[in-house]
Structure formats: C-alpha cells, structure tokens
Amino acid sequence: MPHLASESWWSRVEMGPPDVMLRIGEAYDRDPRTLKVDLSAGVYRDYSGKPWVLPSVRKAEMKLAAKNLDKEYLPIAGYRDFCLNSVKLALGEESELLAEGRVAMVQGVAGIGALRVWLEFVAKYHEGPKEVWISDPSYGNHEPVLKHLGPVKIYRYYDPKTKALDYEGLLEDISRMPEGSIILLHPSSHNPSGVDPTPKQWAGISKALKKGKIFPLIDMAYQGLKSGDLDKDAASVRLFASDGHQFALVQTYSKNLGLYGERVGCLSMVTANREETQRVESQLRIVIRTMYSCPPLHGIRIANEVFTDPELKAQWLRDIKVMTDRLADARKGLKEALDKTGSKLNWDHVISQVGMFCYTGLNPEEVKRMREDHGVYASTDGRISISGITPANVELVATALHEATK
Asked: How do strand 383-385 and strand 215-220 relate by DSSP bridges?
C-alpha cells in the first residue's frame, strides 16, 4: 500500500516497451527528408500513396444516412444478419453447416477482438493443451494476444532459402504436435510472408491435422485480396468444412472493405449440432458481456449493406479487383525496377508471393541500411507493404533494396 501523502498508487508501474510497428511509423514521420517511403504499414494505399475509401463503402454510407437509423445498442452477440452473411462469404451460400445449424457466430471487434473473445472461451472449455501453434513467421500481434491462453509454439512455414513454403517441415511439425493442440492458420495471403500453400498442399495439411486431432483456428483477414475472387480465397476454409473439421474462424473487414477504424469482425465456430451451437453461443455472449458488453454498430451496418444490396456487392467486387490489380502492378513494377539495378540476387519472389505483403528476405541490418541511406522504411523482419510502392517511388525502393543487399 502506498503512503498517499508521498507515493503514487502506480509508482511501481514500469514503462512498457514501445510497439515495434508504431516506432517505425514515428521514425518515418520524424524523418526530414523529402524523398522517403513508408513500407511498414499494413494498410492499402492507392497509386498516389493515399488511403482509399472504397466506392461501395461510400455508397453504403449514403444509403444508411437516408434511412435515418437510430444509434441504439446492438445485442450482446452483435448484428445477427451481418454475422450470417459474413460466415456465408467464407463457407459459401449453400453451406451445409449453416443449413444444419452447426455454426455458432458472434460479432467481433475486428479480427483481434474476435480472437480475444475466442481465447477467453477456449481457456474455460478447451480440453486439449492450452497452447497455440503459429507459423514462422506470423502476424506480429498473434503471439502477444495468444499468450493470454498459454504458451505459444512455432511451426515451420517459410523457407528463407527458397523464399517459399517449407511444406515438409510444416507437416513434420504437425505430426509432433500433442493431440488436442490448437494451430493458427492463414487461409490466404499469409501475413507477413505472402506465401500460401497450393490447393494440393492444403489438402495434405487438412489430412495431417485430422490424423493428429489438432484443432484449426483460422484467421481470415484478406479474403479477396489474393486473387480478386472471394470464393477462391475461401477455398481452404471450405476444404476444412468439407473434410469434417470442427474449427474456429476469425474474420475481419479492415482490409478488403477498407474499414480499418470501424473495427468490423466476426467470430464463428463449427459445432457438432444445433443444440451445441446454442450452448456455445450462450457462453460467447457471457464472455462478451463481461469484456465490452456489446459491439460497435456503424461499421457493421456499412458492411452488411454492402453484403445484402446487389448493386453495392457488385461494386465491392469491382473495388476488390481495383485493389488486387493495383497490388499486381506494384509487384510487377518493383521487379522490373530491381532488374534494372543490376542486382545479382533473384527477386522472383516479389512476383510469386501474394497479397498485400512481400517478405523480401532482408535481415534487420539490411533493413536499417535501407532506412538510413535511402529513407525507405520496412518492418524489421524485411516485410514490405506492396501498396506502399507507387509509380513515383518504385525506383527509389528498388535502389534501396539493391544497395542494402549488395
């Protein structure tokens, strides 16, 4: 107990370490150079390097404004219609699991919020090891969040020598996981590597997980942004459904709808039957009630308006195509600019990797040289955000990559 006259209640609180990604962004902002490029932020940018609000989202907002809706609380589990439409995007309109009532679902505060709710549920009810296996590498916030459940283990995924999937290593690590373990999977556009399994490899992964009785936790953050096709990018999720897995699915619409600040997400779980679905949802509601009471409203309305209005959904699909074409152009432009530098390295992975990111293969020292010598900022692990590359800066980026890796 502190002595109130002389000591604060919080005098023993230590200063927390700064967020790595935030620190990179702050360093970029402080950089006085006119020519500089921020490739660290995991957000979409247009050809001029500016944030882009999707036309489908703008139109949805206008339609919502015309409806003169109130701002009352949502139910604890969120907007049910949105949740159902979100799960349909992943499992398909004709999903047998949905028809059978075998999917528990609640609204999430984006992907991380949905994941956090699931962890609270799992901590109480999962009978297997209280640990989660994540890929090497994985999204930077996965490990800190998943530690709320227990130890975080690593399975092989990216091979730095080939800059491709270490498929055999992945399968070998799955075979060594204790029965009942949880494995986190990225269904498309793996973050940060940009390396995805092929359909045949996904089938092998599914088979190995069934054999080992490993529980899949699927984090779906980029549906549509790999191929431009929502159904194609959901193929691995639908494979797991058809193979008979019970799994958890976390969805977020920060990227593919550009609703970053609206925190739009969904958590769903495949159950054994309709009655089990009801019990699982009841417990998820209890977690939410004691965590944040009920979820936010505005972003969910936008998303569901896009999902359910045929005109808006068609526009959204065109918007996704705009984004994927933009990413493809940036990859092509970077590869061509790198070839012109005379680099002796093989940069084919710039083209072969998919999604919003490229795992360049640079080490922290090389990343530092890019930043200090050229004002090009990347994540410490060498990940760059492809949409940060524009026609105006691609030559600078290519020069920085080349000079740093000589």
From this structure: unpaired
> Looking at residue 173, which CATH number applies to its domain?
3.40.640.10
Residue 13 lies in a domain: no
Residue from 142, 175, 135, 139 nearest 156 by CA: 135
Burial of 90 (0-12, 13-18, 19+ CB in 10 A): buried
User: Is the domain of 339 the same as that of 282?
Assistant: no
User: Is residue 126 located within the same domain as residue 264?
Assistant: yes
Q: Identity (one letter) of the amino acid at 168? A: E
Q: Are residues 283 and 375 in the same domain?
A: no
Tokens standing for residue 250: 């976390």
Residue 354 placed within a domain: yes
- How wide is the angle at C-alpha 323 spanned by C-alphas 321 and 324, nearest 5°? 65
Q: Buried b / exposed e across 190-221, counting CB within 10 Å, b at 16+?
A: bbbbbbbbeeeebebbbebbeebebbbbbbbb
Q: Which residues contact 123 (CB under 8 A, 6 or more apart)?
A: 130, 148, 149
Residue 27, CA distances (Å) to 21, 247, 359 in order: 10, 40, 21
**Could you report the per-residue pLDDT of 167-194, keeping only the tens digit for each?**
999 999 999 999 999 999 999 999 999 9
Residue 120: CB atoms within 10 A of its CB come to 18
Q: Tell me, yes or no, whether 10 lies in a domain.
A: no
Domain total in the chain? 2
Distance CA 244, CA 393 (A): 48
Give strand ranges (E) for 56-195.
Answer: 103-109, 132-136, 152-156, 158-159, 164-165, 182-185
Mean local confidence (pLDDT), 226-254 = 97
pLDDT digits (tens, 9 = 90+) for 83-123: 999 999 999 999 999 999 999 999 999 999 999 999 999 99
Beta strand extents in 34-189 (DSSP E only):
37-38, 103-109, 132-136, 152-156, 158-159, 164-165, 182-185
**Same domain for 199 and 89:** yes
- 350 and 290, same structural domain? no
- Based on the domain organization, do 297 and 327 belong to the same domain? no
Q: How far apart are CA 406 and CA 394, in angstroms?
A: 18
The residue type at 180: G
Domain that holds residue 345: 20-52+319-404
Give pLDDT, residue 19. Answer: 82
pTM tops 0.90, yes or no? yes
Q: For residue 137, give the nearest of 380, 388, 389 by alpha carbon.
A: 380
Pull the structure tokens for residue 188.
């498309």
Q: Identify the CATH number of the domain in which residue 385 sits.
A: 3.90.1150.10
